Amino acid sequence: MKVGITVYPTYGGSGIVGSELGKELARRGHTVHFISSSLPTRLTELNERIRFHEVEMMSYPLFEHQPYTLALATKMVEVAEAEDLDLLHVHYAIPHSVSAILAREVVRPRRRLPVITTLHGTDITLVGADRSYLPITRYCLEQSDGVTAISEYLKRATVETFQFDRLTVIPNFVNGEEYRRRPVPGLRSHLAPEGEPLMVHVSNFRPVKRPTDCIEILARVLRRGVKARLVMVGDGPERAQAEHRARCLHVDRSCVFVGKQPRIVDYLSVADLLLLPSEQESFGLAALEAMACEVPVIASRTGGVPEVVVDGESGLLSEVGDVEKMSADAVSLLCDEERRREMGRRARASALERYSADLVIPRYVQFYEEVLAAE
Ligand code: GMT
After folding, report:
1. Which of 41, 48, 232, 248 is the most buried (most CB within 10 A)?
2. pTM (2 decimals)?
3. Residue 337 alpha carbon to ligand 1 centre in Å
């Protein structure tokens, strides 16, 4: 198949999922054309089967805001016709679905171009529910030829918010060959020079991720006498606040902010625990990637997280904001190596049994085939 994929290239899990999906499809012999404003971050290699088409923005004095949605639709039309695409698969409804539906209508007299929309979370829970975006998001859902959601939770949220139920759950996935605990010479001793246990947080540091709660957890873990260190991976609007809180609580020497990193798997490979105290998380891709690397997850019981992290088996869940319980859970695992390792092993097994790329990618391919076969 020849598939056009559009993602947000720099920010957030939907871009990662779309990019990893493209790579997995290419490994299985399909050709994938990424159409977006810049090269998606996880797309480190382009080749015959993984191509990239940059959306060019035209600036003109009359345009107070450049019309990205139209530029994207224009590029989708061009690529669909030049590369003979079978379908467009967009990740995140706003504005990608709007562009894809417009592109489909433009080429309709000459060719069929089904549009598949994958919902990731805030496109429904935040953006979609904002009254001003509600009608257009509903239109995108209704007009797409196929809609998928990445968790049962997100499907329920979509039905509730939009009374739209014509969607299929295809969960996020992980490649167990790439995401496995592997030796990373020097990294652990660099991050924890005195052999301290390591807690890791990975996110885009948006308010919804509550990264400052990680600092609160670290302070309580230290207060309970466990000399742990915290590695904060990623960047975003809440980073300065989290750094400030670390200084206020005098734990800044026990944590390090390493910014955006190209190889998350290295940090997960040296981690003892992942902290994911999010307010909202329709899936929790960071949790899944940690589980694949045998890292137990301390997370909030929110959205789709309980589907991914089985409480007591692959991690420990708490109510949003309950940093007391999260720190107690962290201490209990950090002080019991055998339990922590066993939980890590079960986490990997659970991740691969349910979310391995080899299980999930064929479901996308089958979904494409069903959409293509429909009238
Ligand atoms: O986080 C967002 O606001 C949007 C979205 C994104 O593009 O990063 O994240 C969502 O998609 C991820 C990948 O499917 C999920 O793992 C995240 O749980 C989900 N984020 C939220 O629901 C807040």
Report:
1. 232
2. 0.94
3. 31
